[in-house]
Amino acid sequence: MKLFQHDHFPHVTGNRVSLRQILDTDLDDLMEISFYDAVQAQTVQQAAEMQAKINQDYLDGNSIHWGIVDHSTNTIVGTCGYYRGLDRGEGELGCVLLSKYYGQGYMTEGMSLAIEFGLNHMGLKRIWAATSQQNGPAIKLLERLNFVKIADTAEDEIEYELRPVINQYHSMK
After folding, report:
1. Which residues on neighbouring strands pair with residue 79, listed in sequence order?
2. Which of 117, 120, 154, 160 has its CA 20 to 30 A from that of 172?
3. Over the stretch 75-119, which tens digit does the pLDDT of each residue have?
4. Minimal CA–CA distance to 82: which of 91, 72, 73?
5. For residue 9, what are the CA distances in angstroms to 4, 100, 146?
6. Helix (H) or strand (E) holding 100
7. Crossing angle of helices 136-144 and 106-120, rounded to 10°
8. How confident is the model at residue 127 (pLDDT cuts 50, 70, 90)?
9. Which PROSITE patterns match (predicted)?
10. Coil, strand or helix at 31
11. Which DSSP state fits 4?
12. Which pTM does this prediction carry?
């Protein structure tokens, strides 16, 4: 099942941030948060190889990975996207923020844009997220975005699911 158009990568614009495709020219700035399959890139070359895999995952309809861009500086401050479950009409939402932007509200707006896009443009029926039990900031972010805890996993993670406050995102159209 393909849930979005592949002829152009979706650009999503909000008040303070936008979500856009990550470009090769962004990779130097994203080394701190360049991951694929939980492995961090150690070089720009590795980051480019990982980004190529991420781009192919998008073309295959398996994920969508955005850079979160601050409008005032045109700088990528983090990334977010849907990484699993799209073949079932659902999506695992994940995010990473560059450390110098912690606590400034970027991720709340970026994730809100991703949620709205997932519900209203991709037609997702379920959105969930997982984080480490020790990741207090991620837990607070998910709760602020109306996710509720649904499970503790054996891998020391907590799973969250977006619950019926979904109507707030449908009204963002």
Report:
1. 67, 96
2. 160
3. 999 999 999 999 999 999 999 999 999 999 999 999 999 999 999
4. 91
5. 9, 27, 27
6. none
7. 50
8. very high
9. GNAT
10. helix
11. S
12. 0.90
Q: What does the pLDDT read at residue 142?
A: 97
Task: Give the separation between CA 29 and CA 22, rounded to whole angstroms.
Answer: 11
Q: Enter the tokens of residue 84.
A: 């699993």
Our CA angle for 141, 89, 33, nearest 5°, is 40
Tokens for 42, please give them.
């150690």
Tell me the pLDDT band of 173, cut-offs 50, 70 and 90: very low
Which pair of tokens denotes residue 142?
A: 């998910």
The β-bridge partners of 20 are 67
> Is the model more confident about 4 or about 29?
29
CA distance 8 to 56: 14
Tokens 């996207």 map to which residue?
81
Q: Position 96: which residue type? A: V
